[in-house]
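Late entry, evening session. Most of the bench is empty. Finally got around to the prediction I had been postponing all week. Sequence below, unchanged from the version circulated by S.P.
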Amino acid sequence: MRNLGVKILIIAAVFTVFVMLPKIADADGYSLEINPGIIKIKASPPALVKTGIRIKNLSDNPIELGYILKPFVASEKNSGQIKYLLYSDYTSKNFNFLQRIKVLEDNQAISKIILSPKQEKNLTILIDLPQEEEQADHYFSIVFLTQSQEKLDSNYSRIIEGIGTNVLVSIGTNQYKALIRDFSTSVFVSQGPVKFNLKIENIGKNFITTSGYIIIDNIFGQTVGKIDIKPANILGKSTLEILKDDVVWQEKFLLGIYTAKLYLNYDDSTSLYREFRFITIPIKILAILTIAGFIIIFIKNRSKTH
């Protein structure tokens, strides 16, 4: 995780799980920071799961906050974004799970908090998992809002200002299984930088965290480049397509045959590997050299005739 803040607007239709950052929300007269930006929990019932969050009032004004819990699923765009469920789409599974979540301050359940100017508070998220809890994943955001916003109906869909943390929960026996669906670039590349396509599918029912790197070897087997792949969370039964601009070999002058090797890890134990070759021919440079060669030959031949 990188320890810095980003400005956000929460309770939009989608929200990025890919980014694991503390968040700052600014509005008229207040500014807040929350840490961590994402929480990952793996538990076996029965269990009383506790995890901490810190929220800080960065402004010079006191503020009163309530909170709401918003379940989400993976977006269909395969971009690492999420989609919040409308209240009308909640299942009994959603309702039952959310009812077992409490926010504690000093070991007391609370429905709101008051932060003085520059004050920071440590809160606890408590999740009660009974013995009969179904083995499944649950994904939700805990979003802190000003009291006037907190009273809004759960079906409210307009973007409002707030600050929150995403929580990923896996209950029971974890089943991890991922596949590399695409790792490629153009077969013939005329110039660098080279952008790669990368698509990873999580075919298991539990969320996974991926990380890895790409090694570039030349025709002689020498390593000439390396690309680090940012860690990413992929929800169960979903696909992540990483943008080309995030997987780039920055080398500009290229000539010859290269091999790209992808080393991908998930959940610290399982590894995936794929490789392919691509050919680079600097067409523009060759064209310029060819034209220059014809010009030189033409000048020499003309000088011989005089």
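Two things to note before I forget:
Confidence is low (pLDDT under 50) at residues 1-21, 149-160.
The longest strand covers residues 63-74.
Will write this up properly tomorrow.
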